[in-house]
Write a structure and sequence with these properties.
47% of the residues lie in helices and 7% in strands. With 441 residues, the chain is of the alpha/beta class. A 7-stranded mixed beta sheet has the order 4-3-2-1-5-7-6, with helices on both faces. The protein starts with 51 loop residues before the first helix and ends with a helix.
């Protein structure tokens, strides 16, 4: 029970009571807590007010610190910088430009080559598609880098300043469109695009002789990737899909130097940079369709609005997950094999090893053999499709025993004919689902 009496609230009695907090000063009157000299221009969530100069230094330091702490990228290396037109992609290009303009001690010592991988042709009409590509090429002109253009699924590129770019890659566009039309579920379509995107980056990096590939993925996107990989059954490659360095292909490593930045920091960087920076939205024709990836994305977006610190915790959990490194053979590094697996129905893919150690499409380590989790999934599917309530008890027992054997064979890809069986043995569980969805088997 409260011990404060009515007399305690007299002239002096209320001095010990709870006092109302002093309202914060307007941002325009705040002084930067970093330099204590200039007026603050922004205050990020759970951060102190900052002036423009201190904010830019803070964000750029995050970018440079990620590269400097790991020391993975060697000095003077030729780096393929992937451009998509998204805000984080534009911000990364500007940070690289700023790093190259610094003095000798602070200078970023890489040789950047920018490539625009066009995906806007998927699910869009020709007029809107041409406008999207034109706008992104204009954004790319803000930066004085050697720039190239290619499309999703291509293994070649051309200079971004050439005329009639889209017409030069019509065959690759038609190929991707045909494959996507053949895949039944939206989940498999989006997973196929993600994996093909990675193979496109590596193919272009090989053509331009780049040893590193810079992606502009930020923490929010990596949190979505982590949870999506769990839902899709890509647990074996989860750690590398969100790590700072994906070194499954040691000759062309994927680097994510923007992973420590948040969407608020990216948006404010575009506003307060030395030069006004334009960006464009990345088109996704499947964003409104029901799929595992879209449901995960909506969940993480809602989590970001209510509990932004939790999102950082989610994607950093992936840093604690280890991965087993397996050498990649020359045959698996051939870009033709990656794309032809799903494009060629002739099934003429051959492997050097009878039991390959890596998936032929995504390069993750194969771990399906005798998997209890996959066995439970296959057995459940067979039970729901085969059990007949009219059977006797003895028949049900015998049917269950046969389903257990068939489920074990299905996990190890021993039910299909020789050609199908051999190909499934060379794919991980998630890539196998894409292939089955494509062929309808």
């Amino acid at each position: 029970m409260c011990s404060i009496g009515e007399d305690d609230f007299g002239d002096e009695g209320g001095a010990h009571a709870m006092k109302e907090e002093t309202p914060p000063l307007p941002l325009a009157e705040e002084i930067c807590r970093k330099c204590n000299e200039h007026h603050a221009v922004l205050k990020l969530n759970q951060k102190e007010p900052q002036c423009r100069k201190c904010f830019l230094h803070y964000v750029r330091h995050k970018f440079r610190a990620s590269l400097g702490a790991t020391k993975i990228v060697r000095r003077g290396s030729k780096v393929l910088v992937v451009f998509s037109g998204a805000p984080e992609s534009v911000a990364m290009l500007d940070m690289i430009r700023h790093g190259l303009e610094q003095d000798a001690f602070k200078k970023l010592r890489i040789d950047p080559v920018v490539v625009f991988v066009d995906e806007d042709f998927i699910g869009q009409d020709q007029v809107h598609y041409e406008k999207c590509v034109t706008d992104k090429l204009e954004i790319l002109e803000q930066f004085d880098y050697p720039s190239y253009y290619t499309v999703l699924g291509a293994q070649r590129c051309c200079e971004a300043k050439e005329d009639r770019l889209m017409e030069k890659f019509q065959a690759e566009q038609d190929m991707i469109q045909n494959v996507l039309r053949g895949i039944m579920s939206i989940t498999s379509k989006q997973d196929f695009i993600v994996q093909t995107r990675k193979q496109t980056y590596k193919a272009i990096a090989r053509e331009l002789q780049c040893g590193y590939i810079f992606l502009s993925s930020i923490g929010l996107e990596l949190a979505k990737t982590l949870l999506s990989d769990v839902a899709l059954g890509r647990g074996k490659s989860l750690a590398l899909d969100i790590a700072f360095c994906d070194d499954r292909d040691e000759e062309r490593r994927i680097i994510r130097p923007m992973r420590d930045l948040s969407p608020d920091e990216i948006q404010n960087y575009l506003i307060f940079a030395e030069k006004p920076l334009k960006s464009a939205a990345v088109a996704d024709s499947f964003i409104d369709k029901p799929s595992l990836q879209n449901l995960t994305s909506k969940f993480v977006d809602n989590l970001q609005q209510s509990f932004p610190s939790t999102v950082s915790t989610v994607f950093r959990t992936g840093d604690k997950l280890g991965t087993q490194k397996t050498p990649v053979s020359e045959n698996q590094l051939n870009g033709v094999d990656h794309f032809s697996i799903l494009f060629d129905k002739a099934l003429n893919i051959t492997s050097e090893a009878e039991d390959p150690k890596r998936c032929k499409f995504c390069h993750s380590t194969l771990d399906y053999r005798d998997s209890t989790t996959l066995f439970a999934t296959e057995f459940s599917r067979m039970v729901s499709s085969r059990i007949n309530v009219a059977l006797s008890h003895e028949e049900i027992v015998e049917s269950t025993r046969r389903m257990e054997q068939d489920a074990c064979k299905a996990v190890n890809a021993e039910l299909e004919e020789d050609e199908m069986r051999q190909l499934k043995r060379e794919l991980c569980h998630s890539c196998r689902n894409i292939f089955v969805d494509f062929h309808g088997k």
